[in-house]
Structures are given as structure tokens and as C-alpha cells.
Amino acid sequence: MQIALSLIVTTGCFSAFRESRKLACYAGVAPFEYRSGSSIRGRTKVSHMANKKVKSLLHMGAIVAIRYDKQLKEYYDRKVQEGKNAMCVINAVRNKLLARIFAVVNRGTPFVSLNQHIA
Tell me, what's the pLDDT at 35? Predict the structure, then answer.
């Protein structure tokens, strides 16, 4: 509920952003490569000029989603098994949550998990 209220207020009822990727940049969960010309240096990083309140709420939502959402838990476990950094994977989950929220708002329909749709 807190995440929804915060996103509604900060995005002006989702009218300030046309794509979930732009909202992800604003919330500080979109990863960016550090590159100069053709060389890529170091790990991907997120913007420090993010809306910290939205980012912290998404972080708590991601932690809960990893615990209770079957798809996101499997995704998290698979990526950690592949050797990815746990915080990097949590950031990816935050980004996935934001994309889900944005899709639900744009479509105007409730979220239906693939597992629920097949069954």
C-alpha cells in the first residue's frame, strides 16, 4: 500500500512517465554501464540522483516479493546460484516490480501471474 501511494503521488497518477524504464531511472533502480568509448569499465551502477524514498520502498517490496512471490523467488535463487551479487539481483527484482506496477496501471487490469493464468 505504501509503495502504491508513494508512486501515485510522485508520478502524478503515473502521468509523468510514459515508460517503465524512465520511471526506473527516476527511482534509481535502472542499471547503467560505465563505459568510455568502446571500453566497458567495472560493474553496472545505478544513479545516485534517485528518489530515495521510492527506492527504499521498492527495496522493502522486493525483499517481501523474494520471500512470497514464487516467480521472483525462483529468479532470485537462480541468479544468486549463477554467481551474481545478491544486491544486484535485489535491484533487478526492484526493477521487475516497477515494471509490473507500470504495466498494471497502463493496462488497467489486475496482475495475473503466469502460473495463475495457466492453471
Answer: 65
CB burial of 88-112 (b: ≥16 within 10 Å; e: otherwise) equals ebbbbbbbbbbbbbbeebeeeeeee
pLDDT for the residue numbered 41: 64
**34 and 41 in contact (C-beta within 8 Å)?**
yes
pLDDT of residue 39: 62
Q: What is the pTM of this model?
A: 0.78
Amino acid at 5: L
Torsion region of 76: left, alpha or beta (phi above 0 gives left; psi -120 to 50 gives alpha): alpha
User: How far apart (Å, rounded) are the C-alpha atoms in residues 72 and 78?
Assistant: 10
Q: What's the grid cell of residue 91?
A: 535491484
- C-alpha 119/C-alpha 105 separation (Å) is 24
d(CA 11, CA 57): 15
Length of the chain counted residue by residue: 119
Which regions of the chain are under pLDDT 70?
Answer: 33-45, 47, 114-119
Separation between Cα atoms, residue 119 and residue 71, nearest integer Å:
15
